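Margin note from the TA: students keep mixing up input and output lines. Inputs are the sequences; the output is the structure of the whole complex. Example:
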Amino acid sequence: MILEGKLFPVDRANVDTDQIIPTRFLGAVDAAGLGAYCLGGLPGIETLYAAHPDATLVVARENFGAGSSREHAVWALQARGFRAVIAPSFARIFEENAYNNAFVLATIAPDDVDSVFAAPSARIDVAEQTLALPGGKSIHFTLDPLRKEFLLGGGFLAYMASQVESIRKWETTVH
Amino acid sequence: MGRTLFDKVWNDHVVRELPGRNALIFIDRIVLYELLGPPAIDQIEEQYDGALYDASRIIAVNDHVAPAKDTVTAELAQQLRTWAKKRNVRMYDVGQNGICHVLVPERGHVLPGSTLVCSDSHTCTIGAFGAFAFGIGSTALAGAMLASAVIVVRPKVMRITVRGRLQNDATAKDLALAVIAQLGFKGGTGYVLEYAGDGIAALSMEERMTLCNMAIEAGATTGMCPVDETTISYLRGREFSPAGEEFERAASDWRTLTADADATYDASLEIDAAKLVPTVTWGTNPGESVPLTGSIPRDADAASLAYMGLHAGTKMRDIGLDQAFIGSCTNARITDLRAAAAVLAGRRVSIPTIVTPGSQAVKRQAEAEGLHDIFQDAGALWTHSSCGACPGLSTGVLAPEMRCISSSNRNFPGRMGAGGRVHLASPIVVAASAVMGRIASPSELSSAVPA
């Protein structure tokens, strides 16, 4: 899986899920319709969209996706046309939701973030776990091995369904 | 080697270790509600013919906007109740509902040492019972309903030892805010916060729930409190708790749900409860707080201040307010309402004030004690139970730049309404502030003129 595109710089830490998709839009539109409201709670978002109309890779500061469990945050980013978020850290539930939707999160070292903010575009190779910037800099990013499988192959729910029998067996014999 | 409380519950539920630090964890109880439940229902109905691992483990609650306020919320609630009926899932609907994190323990749907998930980040509230309870997204919820299991990265465990007793108007909310201030808004990420110490033993279950409720606001997977006689007394006689001999047998198992003396932790922190004071947030995440008697820090985040319309150095008590809200899964249990009512008794609020009980059962109890009269005599609005104003969906949505002091858990930009500004505080500080029309502590009211 190769993701290549212009960067969308969200130069803020703690971009919470209420900012990514305000609660009032949950259930109000279908997943595809969430794109129109993506990052709608982030102060100054209109200016940012105007300056970067065709960017597809978000780069942000630490603790992106903090707060609520709403998977709509991931769906909104996907519906808006974003293909990945690059940040030094993510909130747990947001991270799980991203993997369950095969949406790429690249967790990079805090020291590498400024160089990504300085770049106009990036190229992400998920299998290799590398983030390449114009000019030749290549940054390694971390990825949970199991979640990487779901990211590349999809099928989180199918996996859970395939476990039902063994879970029933565990429940009756062990629990 | 000694085991932590978390280790004991985790080990008891590992179906299988998976690559990385992941594990397939058996889930005893699954809770969903009308706002974030339907996407999970859609996935199971459309892809797996509605198959549920065990419908009796699932609880559906209509809580976020209940009753519905418009067609959108009505359709979500209708989908939940239609599905619950079709699939034999127990449902708490309008009239007998409550905020799920208040209702679930109140009805005895959680047991110490169990695992519980819900499509809501404040599910960590339930960790107060020595359960491993945490929030998940809708697809993970679909997986949990399908297989009664989730995939979790094994969290690290941080022991937070609380010494001493809360005093001088400091409450469990102030303790929660102190933990977040010390850890930072993301400092708990990847951890379970395991509480310990005489300061925790001294807390009621309601207070422990308030504390665990805000574990997510430090980024933590959940909070957990050890089981003691307070836990057991709370659960005895609850509608769905085990009864009679069965309860006593279960209780003797539950008493083992504390950390071993030689348990080792990945991190630890100590807090002196006796030194805590009423605390209020000034910024746009729950970690940005100061003592109520203090001022906004000189190094306060500029973007947070710009959103909040505030300046570094401003005294918290000089901040005027437009609305007050007492409610939410953090602070809307009966003890919270009693404390707020004690502040408001014989006084009048000077700004619109909304009191939303945590469940219909809490509402009835409050009314039996006459608390609803105290609130209404003070000029506050006494509503039905729901998540209410906290998520900015109904009964108290803020207008842009409107400033609200709230007993809830999130002060994110836009949380209680687009452009709205939220200050988090304890129910008694919210009540005192409602009287004064500015951020105020209950101790300031003695000199104020009651209406």
